[in-house]
Fold each of these.
Amino acid sequence: MALVVQKFGGTSVADPDRIRAVADHVARTRKRGNRVVVVISAMGKETDELLRLAGDVATTRPGREMDMLITAGERKAMALLAMALHDLGVEADSFTGSQAGFITDTTHTNAKIVEVRPDRIRTAVDADRVPVVGGAQGVAGETHDVTFLGRGGSDTTAVALAHALGADICELYTDVSGVFTSDPRIVANARKMERVSFDELLEMTANGCPKPAMRSVEYARTHGVDLHVRSAFTWETGTLVTKEDHDMEQAIVSAVTHDTDETKVTITGVPDRPGIAARLFRALAEHDINVDLIVQNVSVAGVTDISFTVPRSDTAAAERTCAELVEEMGATSVLTDPDIARVSVIGAGMKSHPGVAAKVFETLSGHGINIEMISTSAIRVSCVVREDQVEDAVQALHDAFRLEHGPVLAD
Ligand code: ASP
Ligand code: MG
């Protein structure tokens, strides 16, 4: 008998019909001889609505109260699903994150899991009941206050619970049928991947692929929890996410992702001497600004430019921090440019296969797309381009690597 963790996202449980459809699926999974543990998100756009409501009521947002508010969304959904299961004759019990044993730190609105003690969940499963766990929530070990794990945190709840219970598989149900070679809204011939490795999916989620939440993929990779990303609308087989199998042939390029949510910051006229970059990036880190993709130009006459990207929401903070340092560093000015986007080509096989970067650059230049910044990892090539050209870039690269046909394998 397999133990399956099934996580349902907001759109999967957006209304009463959807909740009943999910209950039906859970009941069928059990009938096939599996034990099921469910993790559930808030219904539809409920989390956004609760956040908006908070803004309408007050300007101060104490973390403790925000978490109490936001976690109410999942609490409502889990009770409703448990009722729908009872209607089908399936014994089910809902559990808050705290009841399910999710102990976190005290970082309200973005808490980290410290430990999972799923005793009550295990007891319920052993009694042949279906536990329905509220996603993205826990309880702070120190203060005993309710905590929220952050946006997309239900994926992490599901993966962490699957690991703690030693489940056979963690199924992440969503409104798309799996992980695609590119965003299907942009690339009409994007293909659903049958399989993808943790490493590749982690690069994809770090570079613009919105689902599953990056943190959950990291957790799955660290703890070796196999994932199945699939649709709660068509119920068809989706994409399996597993450890890279060395017997498996590796695709040179598996996917093309893009991210339009960054700003480029440039500091001009920076004196080229030891300690300057250290000073700058320390200051940004102290302001909790997550810097990515850094480029420093060759210096001319002892002066250089430094450019880097930051999440768009951190633009103002980054600008302020840099402006404060310009004088101290003896630099000239700070420029910000929000109209950029990053396109990334990802594939485990490129580790052992030269020429991928060259082909990326040739493809972009062939489409008249200028590259402003470049960064690579062992299994990724990313380019920063003008935002209004990024969709062309994604389609051109998807075509160039023939991703609609299935993976080109490395020798
Ligand atoms: N409902 C929360 C959100 O939308 C948590 C989750 O679903 O992962 O971010
Ligand atoms: Mg969600």
Amino acid sequence: MREDYEMVIGLEVHCELSTKTKIFCSCPTDFGGEPNTHCCPICMAMPGTLPVLNEKVVEYAVKAGLATNCKISRNSKNDRKNYFYPDLPKAYQISQYDLPLCYEGHINIENENGEEKEIRILRIHIEEDAGKLNHDEYGRGSFVDLNRAGVPLIEIVSEPDLRSSAEVETYMRKLKSILEYIEVSDCKMQEGSFRADVNVSVRKKGTTEFGTRTEMKNMNSFRSIVRAIEYEADRQIDVIESGEKVIQETLRWDDVSGKTFPMRDKEDAQDYRYFPDPDLVAIKLSDEYIDNIKSSLPELPESRKKRYISEFDLTEKSANFVTSSKYYSNLFDDAVNVCKNPKSVGNMIMSDIARILNEKEEEPDYIPFTGKELGTLVLLIDKGTISSAIAKKVLTEMFDGEEKDPNKIIEIKGWVQISDEGAIKEVVNKILELNPQSVADYKAGKDKALGFLVGQAMKETKGKANPQLLNKLFLEELKK
Ligand code: ADP
Ligand code: ZN
Ligand code: MG
């Protein structure tokens, strides 16, 4: 990206709500299933059927609005957005046009320079998801699966306040984490329950007017989103620099070639001929209804972070990291309950657990053990039953093995730390005997030699010797 340009990005995030049933009928919202088994005449768009709005959808959307500092509309409605697409047999999507449920919100993110920045949310509206097309790989045609048709969505539209791909990723992660905390969605990106239309434009630094944007639809991996934004911004700069104009259009990002391709011209609102859905009643919300939802909200990440710093004395960095995901934060709370050692739990999440997830290219929701089990692990270190080196091995087992209970793991693997003085003394003597040079070095004032000897003893005991004891006994022997 050239230094004299800046990106302008706005996101339309689609998030599938985890209500039990669909938005306008009582079909299940479960992901997958045999094609066309989670459908009924309503979500299959049979003529003459009547939709009824699922109250839970309104509740979840209002929750999302309150958690993102939005205003909530007392009067709202559903509108038809007309377009033809094979996975939308009604030829219109029931959405919301001029009266979204929530509007004018914001969330704060910390950008690359460590500055707090407010990203404004223009609106959050409710709508139904479309079905899915499965394209036959042998070219025999395409198949329509309507299981997803009618699954409730909220669309969270940001103002064009984002200025880099890093900011986009931070914003999306924060938003995802908030939605997970308030339990309105599982936000599984690989299942498409959290995906974004990414609008990108570029402009010369110092100018105030926005450039023409392009839009990349349905992006559902952070890595692709970041790559696509970088590519698209560079492409637009090349277009402008060569004296041409960026065309407002919808693009498709191809992950394999790492390029964007035109998909279709951009429609304007009038192309959709929005109008109020005559089959549905207006949505009127009382103050009391909204207040009730407000008081049902769980503790949000911002407030948890403050609490971790004041109550547990975590560093800002550690508290930030642990609260970045509901899964981390709940794991932390449960583990601390068991071991009463918040610092160690925080460090273990931030270093070891994050590293393993990173290696596996997984997100925190993947963690296959409980906070109680993690707390037990920390307790085992604190009690001196295992060394922190062994703890790392136990943690790897907890990720990959069947057995999740650290006590059982160290028993099965025979990893209990050797804290028996007699046994350790034997090892110390053996190592001293085998390394006369190091002994001489140490006595000649080279303190490093001790580290080497301890290392050898650790190797000998496969990391099981109690390190404090080992040090102590070596020193005793060497001083003789
Ligand atoms: P739609 O795409 O449905 O027509 P809007 O016109 O409201 O909807 O814009 C959608 C998104 O595009 C918003 O998130 C907004 O922030 C973003 N956006 C609007 N103008 C620009 C721009 N010039 N550059 C980047 N993003 C923009
Ligand atoms: Zn149905
Ligand atoms: Mg759009």
